[in-house]
Amino acid sequence: MIKTASVILAHPYKKSFNHAIFDTSVKTLTDLGVHVCAHDLYEESFNPVLTTEELGKQPTKDPLVSKYVQELIESDLLIFIHPNWWGQPPAILAGYVDRVIRPPHAYDFDPNDSSAAPWGKLTEKGALVFNTSNTDAARETGYFHDPLESLWGRCVFGFCGLENYSRRMFRIISESDDAQRKGWLAETAEIIKNFGDYPKK
Amino acid sequence: MIKTASVILAHPYKKSFNHAIFDTSVKTLTDLGVHVCAHDLYEESFNPVLTTEELGKQPTKDPLVSKYVQELIESDLLIFIHPNWWGQPPAILAGYVDRVIRPPHAYDFDPNDSSAAPWGKLTEKGALVFNTSNTDAARETGYFHDPLESLWGRCVFGFCGLENYSRRMFRIISESDDAQRKGWLAETAEIIKNFGDYPKK
Hints:
Two copies of one chain form a homodimer. The first copy, chain A, is an alpha/beta fold. Helix content of chain A is about 35%, strand content about 20%. The first copy, chain A, is built from six helices and seven strands. A five-stranded parallel beta sheet of chain A has the order 2-1-3-6-7, sandwiched between helices. In chain A, strand 1, helix 1 (about 15-30) and strand 2 form a beta-alpha-beta unit. In chain A, helix 1 packs parallel to helix 6 (about 180-195). The radius of gyration of chain A is 17 Å and the shape is globular. In chain A, about 40% of the residues are buried. The model of chain A has no long low-confidence stretch (mean pLDDT about 95). The interface of A and B includes residues 51, 91 and 145 of A.
């Protein structure tokens, strides 16, 4: 049962299609009876730079990071919404991953065997990623090797033991019209609704 | 002839092995007669968050970003030094890419054909990337699909038309001893020396 969700947005332009996906996601989840922790990282002036003190397992001293961490721990579903910049998220979201998805709550290492694979701690959660792109699918996969799939599917969620994950890339944003965008927002809502069990489903 | 180089470091810990690679790179290039633009992004408190105004081609209003841009344009060689975090650079360096490697100086689009491939403008430069990692090679390539190679080789340099590129990943840092690290620094110097022609070579 998905009772709590973190929805994280990274896009600098308030009228971006990413914002529309964010608004749709929050409304869909709220209508499904979910407690939504929604964060527009730009709006909240999140600082993405991991500190020296955060290199190990020590808790962060940044209250906003602490809040995101607590919500991550409490969330059954994690949703990330961002454009494809260089095959990566915008730096502000790369820094969310650096600072929020940390040990000991997201993963940990065996103190007796430093070469052992990490112990993932997000195994019971689900995750959805919504991306926008101006690169066509053939070039994204054939030339760039779809780096966002590696990042989210394996480097982040796989590393933390989270297997219940799905990603949807909307493209080509720069060539899309209103009707197509409206269809994509409807699809966003459907993907969320079909992802799991909700209080009001 | 490599006369000018930008050397960019991203690591929060001043005694990190990344800092040693940075120092070795700067010294090696200086000894070769190169004008070195060396930047420890953490030390300089670089802000990695791309602004709304920087979404298009408008020049940045951040004087530090302007400085990095001007140096990028003037550099014959670009060197990036960073640890492998989530198959990405630390957010502070992801943001250097977002904010510094921008149109119209690093790439541009055909104003008459929005679907055409970008026009890379870093074609005459060379680039070296030095990484550190605690993941073994088989897991990095087999499971994670070596995302840093996709990022630097194709998503960043390939996108900007820069083909003269080489990357060296030093691993496993957490299990290395002083002798091994000393050898890696000597190798760093050799890689740089052998990369091209220099004023004092």
